[in-house]
Amino acid sequence: MGILVLICLTVCLALADIALKSTIEGYMTRKEERTACGGKVILRKVYNKGFSFNLLEEKREAVKYGSAYATVILTIWQLITLLQKKHYLKKWGLSLMTAGAWSNTFDRWFRGYVIDYVGFQTKWKKVTAMTFNLADFLIGAGGMMVLLASIFRRKKK
Fold first, then answer.
1. Of 76, 55, 53, which Cα lies nearest the Cα of 136?
2. Three-class SS of residue 118?
3. Which of 107, 108, 129, 110 is nearest to 53 (CA)?
4. I need a labelling partner for 9 at 20 to 30 A (CA). Which of 3, 77, 102, 131 fits?
5. Is pLDDT above 60 for 33?
6. For residue 12, how many other CB atoms are within 10 A of its CB?
7. CA distance linking residue 20 with residue 74, whole number of Å
8. Please, is 99 exposed, middle or buried when counting C-beta atoms within 10 Å of its C-beta (0-12, 13-18, 19+)?
9. The dihedral formed by the CA atoms of 75, 70, 55 and 63, expressed in degrees to the nearest 10
10. pLDDT at res. 109
11. Run of H or E including 46
């Protein structure tokens, strides 16, 4: 897979999530909820001032700098991996993770918080109350891909 294709994918996904967050920021109030997919998907605007699930929200500067540091390290890892031959699943996974990391880091530096906007209606109240954004899904999916790439690589040896 071409290096430029995966770098463009990373940039486009990060920009798409930033655009979605800006749209939510401009068109929804914090108390408003909208549903989609027969009520299974819930759109709402939530400000996350910490890491995942507001972890360390009272330490906003540490979260901001920690996020930037992790994003730079992840970007370097992605670029080094993109220069290697093979490792396609790992390359895709790191590209997704890097896109999500840049989007959330952008929010922390320029908005002061991350905008989360999508939740899911479930039979569990705590799960229904959770709110995510595209970046969260990219980081999760990319992490799973990198993990699977690691597992498959070990099995081959």
1. 53
2. strand
3. 129
4. 131
5. yes
6. 11
7. 23
8. buried
9. -110
10. 94
11. strand 41-48
Among 51, 63, 59, 43, residue whose Cα is nearest residue 120: 43
Residues in the chain: 157
131, two tokens: 């709110």
Q: What is the pLDDT of residues 120-138, one digit of tens each?
A: 999 888 888 889 999 999 9
Residues contacting residue 114 through CB under 8 Å, at least 6 positions apart? 21, 47, 48, 49, 104, 107, 108, 133, 135
Residue with tokens 């909208």: 34
For residue 6, give the nearest of 145, 99, 73 by alpha carbon: 99
HEC string of 42-75 equals EEEEEEECCCHHHCCCCCHHHHHHHHHHHHHHHH
Structure tokens at 28: 């929804």
The predicted pLDDT at position 156 comes to 61
pTM, to two decimals: 0.87
List, in order, residues 6 or more apart from 55 with CB less than 8 Å away. none
| Six token digits for residue 60 | 């906003």
Cα–Cα dist 68/72, whole Å: 6
pLDDT band at 53 (very low <50, low <70, confident <90, very high): low
